[in-house]
Design a protein that fits this description.
Blueprint lengths: L34 E5 L6 E5 L12 E5 L1 E3 L3 E7 L4 E9 L4 E7 L8 E4 L4 E7 L4 E6 L7 H4 L25 E4 L11 H9 L3 E7 L22 E5 L1 H12 L4 E4 L1 H11 L10 E5 L14 E5 L6 H10 L1 H13 L10 E4 L1
Parallel strand pairs: 1-17, 3-12, 3-14, 4-11, 14-16
Antiparallel strand pairs: 1-2, 5-6, 5-8, 6-7, 7-10, 8-9, 9-10, 12-13, 13-15, 16-17
Helix pairs in contact: 5-6
């Protein structure tokens, strides 16, 4: 997927300096009062607005593709048996009915160690994976303990403990499965969605369950050697039909968030006739500059972490220099960054 002419690309090429005060600690209230930067790729024009005015930059017939995933209360606390040493477990990916890939914090987290989840079931570490990742098998399905024992896993750069967990969900979230929110969608309100529909702008749904690796910086000096995380996604027949119809009628396909981008591009990569077909399964699509986009004409996104796969993805779509320049403009204009931060519309 990567152009062979980009062999000199380096991870440091996607770095920028962000003072901590730019990292949003609370969401905008109301949701659609966040600021909006509009970046036009062809003209290099940058405009500043508010998210509730996003309809000004869309046209009747455009189709916004949203991710219906819902963040699960994936963080659990517990202790080792029999020693009572404290343990923190973060669910990442379900393997089967009772086994999950998890991030585990605590000492001596070896294979065979038994755990007791507070207000939850007993569990056992059944395999040691990379770093702090472990396979954990629970005595009972952990989903039954979400309400009593689970905690919403806010990103590590959000230090405000009083955030309403529901504000880390999109208003259209429906299908539980994510360890992190598809944050570009946090800016939408139900009234804004209805107003856009009234203007002839369509909405289509996909699902991609977001993993925490989304936020991890690329540590390799050559980003092409980074092992991209895989995530489960689905684009059904109804959405495929909406996309194909919008395209045939001249509408633009605009992904709401990088998760929608990855799903749309994964589906498009399986097309042999230019039409989007249903797709379901794991995607390990890694989008770097040099990638040729097939599934989208625009995207709504937030301002991403330095040296992350997400800033690389938006750089692939708009150009690295344009993105880094836009980020410098955003700092000068005092935009808010990351999950609870402001939005960017790239057309």
């Amino acid at each position: 997927m990567v152009d062979s002419n980009l062999i000199n690309m380096r991870t440091e090429d996607f770095d920028y300096v962000l003072p901590p005060e730019f990292i949003a600690q609370t969401p905008a209230e109301p949701r659609d009062s966040s600021r909006l930067m509009v970046l036009e790729r062809d003209s290099d024009r940058v405009r500043h607005d508010f998210f509730y005015n996003i309809g000004k930059y869309l046209k009747p017939g455009d189709l916004l593709v949203i991710n219906r995933t819902r963040v699960i209360p994936a963080r659990f606390y517990g202790f080792k048996l029999p020693g009572k040493g404290k343990v923190e477990v973060l669910l990442l990916r379900q393997i089967n009915k009772t086994t999950w890939e998890c991030l585990v914090g605590g000492k001596g987290m070896r294979e065979g160690v038994e755990l007791q989840i507070e207000h939850g079931p007993r569990a056992q570490i059944t395999a040691v994976l990379d770093g702090a990742k472990r396979l954990i098998t629970f005595a009972d399905p952990i989903e039954a303990y979400y309400a009593e024992a689970g905690h919403t896993p806010l990103p590590p750069y959000i230090h405000n403990p009083n955030v309403d967990p529901e504000r880390y969900q999109t208003v259209y979230s429906k299908i539980p499965g994510s360890a992190a929110a598809p944050t570009a969608g946090l800016h939408f309100t139900e009234s804004l969605i209805q107003a856009l529909k009234d203007e002839g702008i369509g909405f289509a749904e996909i699902t991609l369950h977001v993993g925490l690796d989304t936020f991890a910086p690329v540590t390799e000096s050559d980003p092409q050697t980074h092992k991209i995380h895989t995530e489960w996604c689905e684009l059904n027949q109804t959405t495929a039909d909406q996309i194909n119809q919008a395209r045939q009628q001249g509408g633009r396909i605009i992904a709401v968030g990088t998760t929608s981008v990855r799903t749309l591009e994964s589906a498009a990569s399986h097309s042999e006739d230019g039409l989007v077909k249903p797709f379901s399964g794991q995607t390990g699509l890694y989008i770097l500059p040099g990638y040729k986009f097939h599934g989208i004409d625009g995207m709504i996104t937030n301002f991403h972490l330095p040296k992350s796969t997400l800033i690389m993805l938006v750089s692939a779509f708009a150009g690295r220099e344009k993105i880094l320049q836009a980020y410098e403009i955003a700092k000068a204009e005092r935009y808010r960054f990351y999950s609870f931060g402001d939005a960017m519309l790239i057309l």
